[in-house]
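User: I'm putting together notes for a lab meeting next week and I want to include a structural view of one of the chains we've been expressing. I don't have a solved structure, so I'd like a prediction I can at least talk through. The sequence is below, exactly as it appears in our construct file.
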Amino acid sequence: MHKHWLTVITVLPLLTLFLLFLGLPAGIVLYNSVTLDGNLTLQHYQTIFTGPLYLDSIYRSLVITGWSSLLGILLAFGCARALQAIGGRTRDWVLCFANMTTNYSGVPLAFAFTILLGFNGMLIIILRQLGLEPDFNLYSKWGLILIYTYFQVPLGLLLLYPALDTIRTEWQEASELLGAGRFHFWIHIGIPVLMPALLGSFLILFANAMGAYATAYALTGGNYNLLVIRIATLVAGDIQLNPNLASALSVLLVVLLTIALLAHEFLLKHTYLNRNDDGK
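Assistant: Thanks for the context. Below is the predicted structure for the 280-residue chain, given as structure tokens.
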């Protein structure tokens, strides 16, 4: 009984902070999303799902998030395989660098890409001096996908590298003895074994990109129609302020992120149960 109360007292400060800084704001946002002038209503959600501007922001956010997550996973998988083959001190340095660059996003990242690939960026000027006129707009959809992919790759590398340890060298040696090449090994054995880890990492990258705001806003100045930018515009914009509608958009964003995280937890649980069954 004494240990039980000691546990409650120990957890109580953390629970209080959770309620004050996460639970209470989330409850206020949810309440504001379903109220108008003090009355309960679903008008804000009706505006979102019938307004072309908000539907377009959701679509653009899903496209940029999906492409950057997919490209991030593919590049991270290639980097993880290369590091696994190299090993040694080089692997440790690259993993340490990837761990630091997972936090390199937001305004500094947007500023760096503007210097390199903006309309008058260094690389663009060099290509023009070489007689080339690059048809690339950093402030477009593919420009945002490029930047999002850049900060997705280090996180994907850190997520996928431990998963590659599940691929045993004995499996590759056995497949080679049976006449299977490296390509067939990865198609029929490696990728299916890693599929839960790949899908789980994709979902984490999806949630990571879906909630990213500072990078897109710093790069486009809020002129690109993304879900997070629409929320910020409705809260602190210069033209139209509608905090209740922003709350409804925020709830929708939370729902999308929650679905991704729950799917990730399901994959982790499914993989864990399968490994326990195999162990038995």
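A couple of points you could mention at the meeting. The longest helix spans residues 243-279. Strands lie at 35-36, 39-40.

User: Perfect, that's what I needed.
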